[in-house]
Amino acid sequence: MKIVVCIKQVPASNDAKIDPETKRIIREGQKAIMNPFDTYALEEGVRMKEKYGGEVIALTMGPPKAEAVLREAISAGADRGILLSDRVFGGSDTWATSYALARAIEKIGDVDLVICGKQAIDGDTAQVGPGIASHLDWMQATYVMAVDSIEDNNITVKRMHEDGYDVCELRLPAVLTVVKDINTPRVPTLKGRLAAQKSEIPVLKPEDIGADPDKLGLNGSPTRVVKTQPPEPRQTDTLRIEGSPRECAQALVRELKFRGLV
Amino acid sequence: MIAKTYIEKAEYRNIWVIGELLSGEIQPVTYELIGAARGLADARQCEVWTVLIGAGAGAGAGSLFAYGTDTVVVVDDSRLDGFQDEIEAKVLVRLIKKYKPEVVLCGATTRGRALIPRVAVMANCGLTADCTGLSIDPENGDLLQTRPAFGGNILATIRCPNHRPQMATVRPRVMKALEPDISRVGRIIREGILDTDADKMKRIIEIFHSREGALNLSDAQVIIAGGRGMKGPEGFRLLKDFAFRVGGAVGASRAAVDSGWIPYAHQVGQTGQTVQAKLYIACGISGQIQHLVGMQSCETIVAIDKDPDTPMMQMADIAIVGDIFEIIPEIMNELAKS
Amino acid sequence: MRYHIENKVYHVEILPPKQDSENLERDLDVFAEKYTRVMDSGYCACITDNAMGHLSFQGTEMIEELGLPVLPEQVMIHLNTFHTREDLDNILSYCVEKGIKYLLVVSGDGSERLPRLKPSDIGVQGTESITSVELLQYITREYPGKFVLGVAFNPYEPEDHEFAKLKRKLWAGASFIITQPIIEKNAVVDKLIAEYPDVPVIVEAWMSKKLHLLSDAVGYTIPENTEYDPIATLKLLHQAYPKNGFYLSLLGFKTQYDLIRDLWV
């Protein structure tokens, strides 16, 4: 099995504010981490390799410093990492990002399975996984909570839905996006981390993956952010209740009854 | 598809809603999206179309007119039994190319979020996830799509100036359905599946239905939610008792879920569920913005906390200052009396 | 643990490098240097376990990879509930093999990346999540007689709650107590010492000048003094608690280490 796990480097937290003067987003002093959902994708890939043999390749697109998440992936069991990094990739929306990743996966060649986390915590769109499948015209299974078996080029997975789940079989090559329920990711060991630091991480540019520059970056992105603003506060006159626990409880129940809520 | 000029854009017309079907049954998010689409269609002076794709999809088509749709496109084929995202995507792309809608809206459900990105790539158009606001720019007729970004700390407005259709997903219970008007009528168009649509077909082996956890929370009229202030799983046992007493469901902040006090299915907020209960009682939840975006459209919000100055206590309709562990048993006593 | 108190052996906290360290080589060197210094001083090195939920390397792998010596009376490993069963057993077996006998067993702080022990992992029923009590029970059951187990006591939590929890911890196999950091004589700690005269109590002294970090660590707001002198405070704490052991958190190795040598008299 040749497995590609797509990973995104994201800010550790979402503390973003808007500068009241410049109206620009301030995100300072942020640590960058591997998107938490991707750790489940990586773990699942590594487990498959351990079970069926093969290779796990961690793939990311981002600035040069995104190399750190690839080293982290290698210390957690990936065999190697590939970084897509170039100015031309900058400003890509989910359409252009999934295009670039799909071209890289084609370039890697003979890939059986692509695994992504269900979404990244900074964008929360959940669009890149199915987008990659679409660009490659491969089958897909999203919100995968278990991989039951891989046999004769077919993979059987359990997909989570709002009203339960289903078990379905799809042909490889395919793209999976996985949810947290799928496994418990291992924590990288110091030994693995020291080994990962010595790995060579190739940096690929659009021409290296045969990507059309017009389909990348801002040029290749159909969506445009036209405005950012802080959310409007909910307008309300808060009724404050204080006193002993019993007094508070009595006042609340009286109020809720008056409003017809209990 | 690329559409840069006025003339190119004018070829695209009408607001589409992709219906959400579970076992052939139309889900509430479909009515909510039709409600939102109606407003957009009125602004654009065009029609609302609803597309129903699935085995047995035709059954409920006629009921949709009352909610504001003008045309229903039905694709009913036994090969669509279960969730066949690859086939549905191909069918949708074919319909989009044939009828050229200006806007396509879809529920941000597990199915919608699997299907629509696949369609957007094939149709070469922009897609905005989890919109909380949709409007038409009066100057140029573009769809303005507002969504929370950075965990809800910022609202971003997005447009797709050079591509049509403009696609967006919206979470269940974010938009409001219109009051049904049974005097409204419309037409139904039936479309079929081509063999080329169904070249990639999943074998659905088993389907399990369970309405445990996740759905209970989003359907609940009353939600008792806890945060860091509940201090541990024992605190949540108190909330479960309370919820049971009032016929509600238990919600939680991310902090509580990350601490392992309660399973993820209970998480409310940007990375959890969006809820629209009549009554939301927040116990020991400070109210980080990522939580607030998931529950701020509840009708009445009650906050109980030791600290009177948290964002949650500021935004609540009713704020009780005090010890949760003392107040909740008293509330239960008080309710038992009546 | 009596040995430590009688022989005035400080417990010196050392944090292993974080997983996302930007200069791992340097951090490893710093760790090795601190550890060696603590060994040479005859003190006890206490190695934290993903402190504050920050994903860090384990004390056991630091000792292994850096080839650090283990002197049984001079090493204590923190162990919390954020591990898989497999990792937990790896850590515990390594400790047995290397002769590490002191463990501080705590619930610990979680994060997105840290797997929490599930009740089913260690055969526990009737609870949503594993706390230090269940972890203590597991260690005493699976590794009988191998470890001397300590637990934390938080004087900033509601008193009744904390004493009830402590009772369960001691019942589950703990034989010594380390308090949360204090910065002056503390009435709740006094009560603890009075109630458990037979259990060694190690007082944790806050050695950082940054008091707001302490507020963060204990989840409680401690009034901010403009001038906090950790060394002077440690002196006062020694006078207040002459019969107790001492655990030093966030000790400055550059500026403070040489100053503590003659404080415990």
Distance separating the two termini of chain B: 62 Å
Strand order of the largest sheet of chain A: 11-10-9-12-8-1-6-7-13
Give, in order, the helices and strands of chain B.
Answer: HEEEHEEHEHEEEEEEEHEHEHEHEHEH
Rg of chain B, rounded, reads 22 Å
Q: Which strand-content bin applies to the residues of chain A? A: 25-35%
Low-confidence stretches of chain A: none
Q: Considering the protein shown, what is the CATH homologous superfamily of chain A?
A: HUPs
Can you tell me about this structure?
The complex is a heterotrimer of chains A (262), B (338) and C (265). Chain A is an alpha/beta fold. Chain A has helices at 36-52, 67-75, 94-108, 128-136, 190-196, 245-258; strands at residues 2-6, 9-11, 17-18, 25-26, 32-34, 55-61, 80-84, 113-117, 139-151, 154-161, 164-171, 174-178, 203-204, 224-229, 239-241. Chain A has one domain (2-215): Rossmann fold, CATH 3.40.50. Chain A contains six helices and 15 strands. The model of chain A has no long low-confidence stretch (mean pLDDT 91). With 338 residues, chain B is α/β, with parallel strands linked by helices. Chain B has two domains: 6-191, HUPs (Rossmann fold); 214-337, Rossmann fold (3-Layer(aba) Sandwich), CATH 3.40.50. In chain B, 30% of the residues lie in helices and 25% in strands. Chain B contains ten helices and 18 strands. In chain B, α3 crosses α4 (110-122) and α6 (233-246) packs parallel to α10 (324-337). Chain B is elongated. The model of chain B has no long low-confidence stretch (mean pLDDT 91). By secondary structure, chain C is of the alpha/beta class. Chain C has a single domain, classed as TIM Barrel (Alpha-Beta Barrel). Chain C contains nine helices and eight strands. Chain C has an eight-stranded parallel beta barrel with strand order 1-2-3-4-5-6-7-8, surrounded by five helices. In chain C, α7 (187-195) links the parallel β6 and β7. The model of chain C has no long low-confidence stretch (mean pLDDT 90). Chains A and B meet through β3, α3, α4, β9 and β10 of A and α3, α4, β7, β9 and β10 of B.
